[in-house]
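re: ur question from yesterday

yeah so i grabbed the chain u mentioned. its 99 aa long if i counted rite. heres the sequnce exactly as i have it in my notes:
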Amino acid sequence: MAKKGYWIARLSIHDQAAYDAYRDRNGAVFAAHGGRFLVRGGPFEVAFGDARKHNVVLEFPSYEAAKTCFHSEAYQAISKDLKRGAEVDLIIIEGYDGA
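ran it thru and got these structure tokens back, copy pasting raw so excuse formatting
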């Protein structure tokens, strides 16, 4: 069974309209690749290091699905609004299924 894949994003939004345009369209793109939000904002506490104001975690059925979504034409088209609207740190990572 394939390990799940995740996107972990930290954002600092500087153009709310551009970010809203991205946010309003990203759910359909993620769903087309089996993605779902685990974290989409919400309160948080900085335990170590630096943080951005917004945090997002998405889960995909596999690491390959997570990468395929990012590289898809549909995501690349909407990511232009994200890049215009926010400074973003994004990693795509394979999940851990051990003990």
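noticed a couple things. Helices lie at 16-32, 63-71, 73-85. also The CA atoms of residues 56 and 73 lie 21 Å apart.
anyway ttyl
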